[in-house]
Amino acid sequence: MGVLMSRRQTVERVQKVSLAVSAFKDGLREQPSTRRRAEAGTARQGTLEQEVQEGEEEAVAGPSQPEESSAAKAAWERLRDGRGVEPEEFDRANRFTPPAFIRPKRELHDDEPPDISLEQREQILNDEMCEICEVWTAESLFPCRICHRVYHDGCLRRMGYLQKDSAVEVTETAHTETGWSCYYCDNLNLLLTEEEMYSLMETLKNCKIIPGVCLTLDDFLHYKHQVHKQQFERTMPEAQEEQAALQFNALDPDKKGHIEWQDFLSHESIQLLQKIRPQNALLRLLTPKERERARTAFLALDQDNDGFIGEAECRQARHSWFRKHQKEMLSCNVSISHVGPISEGSPASSRNGKSPEKILPATKQEETSIDWPGFLRENVAYILAARPNSAALHLQPLA
Q1: pLDDT for 74-103, tens place per residue?
Q2: Which tens digit of pLDDT belongs to each residue from 13-28?
Q3: What is the pTM of this model?
Q4: Helix count (H) and strand count (E) of the chain?
Q5: Plot region of 340 (φ>0 → left; ψ -120 to 50 → alpha; else → beta)
Q6: Do 270 and 395 form a contact (C-beta atoms < 8 A)?
Q7: Backbone conformation region of residue 396, classed left if phi is above 0, alpha if psi is from -120 to 50, else beta
Q8: Beta-bridge partners for 258
Q9: Beta strands in the chain (DSSP E)
Q10: Pairwise CA distance, residues 236 & 158, whole Å
């Protein structure tokens, strides 16, 4: 009975609505101006149909400009989201879904000096389960040399982050002093906040830089000239142009004549961090593994254990931070990895025929002494810039 009453009420409501609509239509017939507006609307509808038809004819005739702008828009979106791998570069079939990168946010206390003790060593603990599949399989996990995450090589392949060449690098270096950076730490662009990222994107757009495209020396110098002119409203000095050319050579270690997009993006990201954030804020980006390597490096340079090193020794640390061990040295028992300065007794310290005596002055007392906090502040940008797996030097130290 309740159902029947409900249906009857529904029918009555429909009838009432129908009567109201009929009365409204009768009122419209009595207003000629309303009728004219309706006729005008019909005319506009005909015009819209003509425009749609014309658009379809243009689409059949050939490619249009909106298609190109949509492709460019997609490239800028990948850059904004921190996705370094183009979707077309590998087949997505049977692959895991890439993670959604969340850019960091600045905190109120970021600019305050952090408490990083030289005497108190930090305990380094890696995760026990794979970051991707969250399964524990003991020795088959590959640790990141920067953060605490560990991975299966199979999971990295299914994510699309492990290609043919890089697969060999991971398996050979992940458990050595050289180490391997995961896809989070390998991308320096992920250190930028959303505001900093939009600032970088605006600069790249103004200088006509296309995401994903390699840059030649002329392209790189032209970009540096434009950025300098926009910032200082004057031509870049010749000395800075020479330094920019040296930076290009550092980003092109294989002498290909161009630099890869990801290397260029990492270089610009660390440059922007240096300009915008104070050194205390950069120090807060260091991971426990990086801080521990920095301690090892400082103690190796502080031969007399007085808590101070010379300015030239600090500069030596800056220049040697990017040096990678040769393959025959990977199994050697060295105390400082390739992301840390090489001590005087290290077999790699004489690489390229340069002895420590040619780099350092005769005595440490003739120059300014630097303590542990000063050492960190002077080298923090170079420690961060050494994160990527690429052989490129993303921040060329000054001579």
Answers
A1: 777 777 776 654 444 445 555 566 666 888
A2: 555 555 555 554 555 4
A3: 0.70
A4: 14, 6
A5: beta
A6: yes
A7: beta
A8: 216
A9: 142-143, 150-151, 215-216, 258-259, 309-310, 369-370
A10: 46
Is residue 341 within 8 A of residue 297, CB to CB? The reply is: yes
Of 163, 158, 126, the C-alpha closest to 142 is: 126
Tell me the sheet residues that pair with 259. Answer: 215
How is residue 369 annotated by DSSP? E
Is the Cα dihedral 148, 167, 183, 327 positive or negative?
A: positive
The upper half-sphere exposure of residue 165, i.e. CA atoms within 13 Å in the direction of its Cβ, equals 2
DSSP letter assigned to residue 259 = E
Helix (H, G, I), strand (E, B) or coil at 92: coil
The ranges assigned to domains in the chain are: 123-186, 277-323+368-398
Q: What phi and psi values does residue 258 have, to the nearest 5 degrees?
A: -155, 165
Please tell me the distance from the alpha carbon of residue 179 to that of residue 296, in angstroms, as a whole number.
16
Render pLDDT for 209-229 as a digit per residue (tens, 0 to 9): 988 899 999 999 999 999 999
**Can you read off the two tokens belonging to residue 30?**
């009595």
In the three-class reduction of DSSP (H, G, I as helix; E, B as strand; rest coil), residue 309 is classed as: strand
Q: What is the CATH number of domain 123-186?
A: 3.30.40.10
